[in-house]
Every structure is written in structure tokens, then in C-alpha cells.
Amino acid sequence: MEHYNMNLTLKVWKQKNTKAGGSFETYQVKDISSEMSFLEMFDVLNEQLITEGKDPIAFDHDCREGICGMCSMYIDGRAHGPWTKNTVCQLHMRAFKDGDTIVVEPWRSAAFPVIKDLIVDRGAFDRIMQAGGFISVNTGNAVDANALPIDKKDADTAFNAASCIGCGACVAACKNSSAMLFVSAKVSQLALLPQGQPERESRVLNMVAQMDKEGFGNCTNTYACEAECPKGISVSNIARMNREYLKAGLSTEE
Amino acid sequence: MSLDSKIPQGEMDKKWTDYKGHVKLVNPANKRKLEIIVVGTGLAGASAAAALGEMGYKVKAFCFQDSPRRAHSIAAQGGINAAKNYQNDGDSVFRLFYDTVKGGDYRAREANVHRLAEVSAAIIDQCVAQGVPFAREYGGLLSNRSFGGTQVQRTFYAAGQTGQQLLLGAYSALERQVALGNVTMYNRHEMLDIVKIDGKTRGIIARDLVNGTLERHFGHAVLLCTGGYGNVFYLSTNAMGSNVTAAWKAHKQGAFFGNPCFTQIHPTCIPVSGDYQSKLTLMSESLRNDGRIWVPKQKNENRKAVDIPEEERDYYLERRYPAFGNLVPRDVASRAAKERCDEGYGVGTTKLAVYLDFKDAIVRYGKIEAGKTGNDTADHDSIVKMGKAVVEEKYGNLFEMYEKITGENPYEMPMRIYPAVHYTMGGLWVDYELKTTVDGLYALGEANFSDHGANRLGASALMQGLADGYFVIPYTLGNYLADDIRTASIPTSHPAFEEAEKKVSDRINTLMNIKGKQTVESFHKRLGKIMWDKCGMARNAQGLQEAITEIQALKKEFWSDVKIPGDINEMNPELDKAGRVADFIELGELMCKDALNRNESCGGHFREESQTEDGEAKRDDDHYSFVSAWEYKGESDWQLTKEPLTFEIVKPTQRSYK
After folding, report:
1. Which among A140, A152, A190 has the least Cβ separation from residue B131?
2. Could you tell me if residue B253 is inside a domain?
3. Percent of chain B at pLDDT above 70?
């Protein structure tokens, strides 16, 4: 791979805390290697800022291998930046060229308040999980794992839905700030598996109710969520969730 | 002080059953009055918090990430071992036990390992019941694969994302308990000290990382499930936030540290490409099932890998270890790669890499595919095409990850790999009940030292985390709490809490007031370099002594010249990191002391003074068949207590993979 260095202009959202207003700050970075990751470029910038006595940029990150779901930057108008099926931490600088100006913002959604700079509060996702994103089985109650054969096709589809990393890119990419892709991925995983049947109806009703309560918008089928999902979670999960929701609504007694 | 490991009497395979049969119980009404603090929400922490919440205890759980689902267990790729014998290939609890003790190079406690093997099967049952989507066969039953250091197929997996699926299972169980009100979750909180009253652990001081506020939390017992300390090397496969702080604070309050120098260096990671590098990425061990590892036979080779003819390649693992070849255990494979690179045969721009080549596997699979379709006359190109499809199905996500990071296509040219720090077998010393040397303080998962000896086998970390959390601590903790039912909640206005909070607050103020010139990151990098060069894959007395002196000097420099921006009472990731790096510096010194003291080679610990004529690790059972448990006595001052290891069942032999 051809290696090159580049100088870049960065316009980054700075916001002291949730209550304060925010604005874009402009930074220059020099001699950035095309082999660096995007977050390593931010590390370099932060080291530079700290040395100069300036305020470094706060951003969420942890595993830096695309699986923990912590990193969350909206780069040049796209959640997780220009590469598809990718997280920010896996984005590398060879995606850019010398002289580029890059605009970096936090996830934008009323349900994800900014905590500082590029860091947002995604506690809403945990609360949606608390509403029903589980199978009620206490430790020690399980039967033998192979007592319950599961069609490989269903198991694979459930796995694909379960590979959601809960990063929130779907919400950030959606013009309605809808969390339908995230919620439907969990609803689908558990609806597809026999273990998930006993709570199938209450689960979808409760999770959707919590989703609405958190202030996420509705789905209007733009598919922006699927396009920007780093794990390629399919919008067919949303269709499945809508069916599940409808069926559950029709069959409940209340 | 002598250490009591509290291993139950009786035959090895009856110990755990007998223990469970006679352990003290806490009745449901009393459980409601007992409060438990769980620090860390990876596999060990999330499973423990969920299980204890289900039992009726009042649990408070803490994690420094924005959600418990992000803990670094999530990044584990390969799988989880369990003695299910679903493949009918002769597996059993005994064999899993045996392989783990042997794989750990006879430095683990037999009774703990046996218990781990015993509960392994129940873990799989529990995870499936929670809806964890493990890989399945067409008949609908669970699939298994093999991993290094074993001869049976006992590894359960979910593509290359097994850790993710297991953690999300435990996380959902945890969130269910949060919803039921049995667990209170504290995200973006970091534990900065334990609080002791009358010699017992009675709570913690935690810092809210969003606003910098210090909080006091009472608990009848505290469980540290805070993972390993591989980031002491700066570069490792650990997450950026993984740290030793909670364990280190406990250590300084009297918890002994067990075998701190036992570090696992994983052979197949993407090599370092520049000074700016912040972390290293693992390529699953499963790749060694099909990839062949080689370097050029000629030093300073500059040709591209594909231009180097077959006869000029040195498949050094196959040459040195014909019996196990590319599937030797991790410690052996890592040292062999280092040896070739040190001799000048390394590849890539840094010359610190070896090739992992799938060319032969692609052709082999391609021919099988051609055979399946009766296409015996297929030309080479179509065979390669069919082979690539098979390799993609098996390892697609890993190949994709490699290409994203390096920009190179591993289907066309071999991967470049090099060993990297991955896991720490050492940790807080615990007895059979997972209790540290401080009453009421427990350590679970990677944070303790107990099950993997000097080298961990692949797919065993996930097993241990969940074993400790779901199936061990629910029993052993009750044995302690049963005697504590008359202790009412202690108000956090108690002087012990006040004093502990003041100590934490003073330290933060001291850090912020240094106002020096060098960044936290620069100190961490320097520490990492000392550790990697002198306490890494190969260690010797001289280097370790030098490292101790260098680390002591680095510590002084840190505390007089570190520069931390921002304020205390706001979100300040640099301040968080400063506290962690300060603790890593102290731990680094202890690791070197421990490595210096252990003048033998075992597992991942290779002392150059202790090797066979052909350069293999040489254990010294006569002098070092013990656990090193270090007690903190004061600055740069530790006292060693030895817990002798006895092997009733698996008799130690020199490991050979030739």
C-alpha cells in the first residue's frame, strides 16, 4: 500500500457540558501518516493541544477494534465517516488526502444529549434493554444446551441481528433520530429463537414503548440506518419488528 | 503471614460438590438486607451482578464505560471451552482439567482448575437459555471447533464474535436485574479505593467521570471484576481504558498480588506500524489452523512475499516443532517469531513481523471443492477461486479487519503478524472462595490469578469469567455473608469513608497541581517501552534490574513533571488516564521484581538464564513450584509469600511440542 503524509484542517464540535452551548473549533494537523487510524490522528492532535496548553477534544473510544461500540463520531456528514460497514476506530487516514478539511460532530439526537465535545449519553439504549431485551432465565435453571435444536437458518439470522454493537450510528444517521434498527435487532434475535417465545409479545410492546418514551423518532423507510450501520444490520429487522408489534398488539387482552 | 488457600479436603473430583453441600447459606429475608458492590461489568462482573441480583442480594455495579455492554470481554474472538463432549471425541471434565493444568505449565492450582472444568458445561447451557446465538450445524445442534493446545473439539463459538455474544447475554441478564430493582448500575464511574472498617471491606470510593464528583458507596462485600493489566505495556490488544487501578488500590490496602509477571504474549497480532500507534489488534488463533507461518531464508530480504520461491522460505514452526507445527501453544509460537526477527529474518518495513500465509490452504480447499463437484480438470485459477470462497466463509471477518487496518489484501499476499501483549495470568491472589487476603474483598475473572498458571490456553478466558460469576461466587460469597447478617448498613458518614475519600481527593489534587511539561501519554509510552524491552517476551536478571531502576526514575519524573489539562470537577479523560498510568508505573516495578525473583522459565515467562540447549523454556520445579504472592509494604517495598503448589493428579513433566 502506498504510504503518504498529509496536512489537514479539522473542524470539530466543542461543547463544555450538556448545558453549555457548543460551536466548531478549527485545528490544523501536519504530517499525518496515511497508515494512522482516525482516532490515532485525534491522539496526535490532543497531544499537540495539551503541549500547547489548550483544551484537548473529548471523544468516546475503547476497544479500537470495531466491536465495543463506544466510538461515535459524525464525520463529514456520515456516522462513523466515509467507509461503509465500519466504525470510526477502524477508519484509517488513507481515506483522506493532503489538504482535506474534515468536519467532526457528535451523534445528533435529542435522545442522546451531548455530555462533552464529541461524547454523548446513550443511556436510553440501556433503558430500552431493561424494558425487555432479555430472556427471563435465572442462573442455574437452564436445560442442556442441545436439548433445544434450532434451525441453522434461524440461528444464523438471529446471530446477524445480535451482532449489533449498540453504537447508535443508526440514530445519528436517521433524519428522524429513530432507534428502530437498534430495537428491532434485539427484538428479532429473541423472536427468532425458541427461548424467546414466552415473552415474545410483552417484549416488543415494552421495548417499543420505552423507545418512544426516550424521544426517538419513527421510521420513515429511508434506510439511512442500514447504510451507516457498521455491522450491516438489515432493515428487514425493522419489518419483522413491525409485524411482531402488530401481532402482539392484536393478541393482548388489554 | 502464611497463605491459606482453603482448598477443601477430599478427592479432586468431589471437592466442589462437597464444598457446595456444606457451605453456609443465607436465607432470602437476610439476602435482601445484604449489599454487594461489583466493580467491572465484563463477563465476570456482569454475570456475578446478575446472578447475585437474581438471588435477592442488593447489588451495586460499576463500570467506567458508558454502558456495561462495552467491557473488553466483548472483543474476544475465538470461543469458549466446555467439557460437553458433544463431538463424541473423548472429551471429559478430566481432560479439560488436565489440558488446562498442563497448558499453564504447572503453575496453576489444581483444585481451582478442576472446579472450572466441572462448571464449564453449565455455562453453555446458561448462555443458550439466555439466547446467545452460538454457531450451529444443519441438524440444529451446537457446533464446535478446535483450539491450540488440545486434541479435542470443545470450543463453542459465534463466528469471530464469541466474546460479544456472551457479554451481551450477561449484559441482558444484568439489565433485567436493573429493571427489577435488584441491581443499581453506575456507568461512567471509576473505583478509586476500597474502604475498610475493622479489617473488613465495607465499600468503595468511586469517581463519577462525567462531573468528577467523588462518591461513597457501602457494601457488605466488594467484588473486583476489573480485568487484566496488559496495558502496563502501553501497546497491547486490551481496550484503551483497560487498567489496573481497582486491583492496585486493593493491593495497596493489603490484597496480595499473585504472579504479577505472568503475561501472555499472543503470537498473531497485526504488527506495529509507527510511533503514533495506540493499540494492537489480534488476529484470532483460529487462523493458525490453516495459515502457515514463515520467514525468508535469507536475511534482510527485500523481495515481495509472493516473489520469494518456495525453497527460499523457512517454515520455522514446522521445522522446529514437527509434531505440533503451526499449532504450538501461544508462548512457544511467540518466542519462535521473536527469535527469527532478532536474528534478522523479519519482514515488512520494521522487520518486526513474520508471514502468515494462506496460499496453500486456498489451493487445498479449492481442490476439495473441485472434487466435490466432480470437476477434476479444473485449472489452477478456478481452484484458487473456489478455495478463496472457502477461506472467506471461515475467516472472512478477520481478513476484512486485517485489510481495513493494513490496506493489504490477505487473500493475495500473506498477512504480516507479530506477537503482542494480550492477557495477564497474574492478578490478585485469591483462595478457593475467590477471596483476596482482605476480608470481604473478592476478585473474579482475569483480575485474579488462579486458573491459568503461567500460560492460558485459547478459549479459556471467557470460560473462567463466566464460571466465577455465574457458578462460583454465588456459593462462596454466601459462606462469608452468612456471618454478616447482623451487620446493618454502615452510613457513609463513618470516619473510614471520610478518610478514604480524603485520601483519594488529595491524590487527585496532587496530580492536578504538578502542572509539569510532559503529557500522561508520553509517560505511558516510556513505561511500555521499558516493560516490553526488559520484561517482555524474554527476560534476564540484568535487564530486569535495569528496568526496576528506570521505572523508579520514571515514577519520580511523573510525579514532578506530568501535565494534566482541564479541571477536577468536569469530564476530564486526561485526569482519568493520569491516575491509571501512575498505578501502572508502580505495578511495572512489581512485575519486574517478580520476574527477577522467578529464575526459571515457565509458560509465558521466559528467563534467558533458564533454557535448554536448543533454546526451549526450562522449568525448575525443585525451586519454583509455588505461587508468588506479593504483599505491599510501602513505596518500592514488597514482601514475598510463597504458596506451594502440589500436584496430586497431573504430574509435572517438561512440556514438549516437537
Report:
1. A190
2. yes
3. 100
